[in-house]
Amino acid sequence: MRALVVCESMFGNTMKIAEEVARGLGDSMPAEVVEVGTAPTVIPDEVGLLVVGGPTHAFGMSRASTRKSALEQAPEGLVSKGGGVREWLTALQVNKPIAAAAFDTRLRAAYLPGSAAKGVHKALRRHRMILIAAPASFYVTGTKGPLEEIEAARAFEWGRALAETTSAL
Predict the structure, then answer these.
(1) Of 45, 79, 91, 162, which is most buried with the most CB atoms under 10 A?
(2) E strands along the chain, which residues?
(3) Backbone angles phi, psi at 33, to 5 degrees
(4) 3-class secondary structure for 62-93?
(5) pLDDT tens-digit profile of 53-77?
């Protein structure tokens, strides 16, 4: 069994979290990080854990309009250049229920509601995945980042916890 971590990232922060989650998983199972634009829409049979994450844009998962806005803020280019997690989840075909978890990156602010992770979590549930964790948020200091200082370590530990939960299934 291996883990697949599918990630949408605009400015690189969500990709860093995905890499740390995979590193945390790696002690227990092989884990691969795949940018959403190249992620398979049919989950391979050997994948026993699917972790999906993206940035929170306008209170939820990104859309074409919010990705366009992100591109305007990053003339050097974006990590994820095509469709996002929302579109990938719509196209996703699941042959059998597997363990799954969702995460996002977002600003830490009491007045900013919404979470991409909650939307991903709901979509995974609609695909009849076995949800093994509550949606997780990792925090950035500004729209373009960087990550808050402790977040990479938190993502690593979250990956380790996901691996432990998956092995107990």
Answers:
(1) 162
(2) 2-7, 31-35, 47-55, 99-107, 130-131, 136-140
(3) -100, 130
(4) CCHHHHHHHHHHCCCCCCCCCCCHHHHHHHCE
(5) 999 987 778 767 666 676 676 656 6
Tokens of 33: 């990080």
What pLDDT shows up at residue 79?
65
101: tokens are 């978890």
Task: Please say whether the beta carbons of 101 and 162 come within 8 A.
Answer: yes
For CA atoms 139, 109, 141, 76, give the dihedral sign. Answer: positive
pTM of the model: 0.93
For the segment 30-55, the average pLDDT, to the nearest whole number, is 96
pLDDT reported for residue 78: 55
Q: Does residue 39 have a pLDDT over 80?
A: yes
Name beta bridge partners: 139.
106
What type of residue is 98? Answer: I
Decide the pairing of beta strands 136-140 and 2-7.
Answer: unpaired
Euclidean distance between CA atoms 169 and 153, whole angstroms: 25
Cis before 146? omega within 30? yes
Say if CB 31 and CB 22 are below 8 A apart: yes
User: At 168, phi and psi to the nearest 5?
Assistant: -85, -10
Residue 73 contacts residue 106 (beta carbons within 8 Å): no
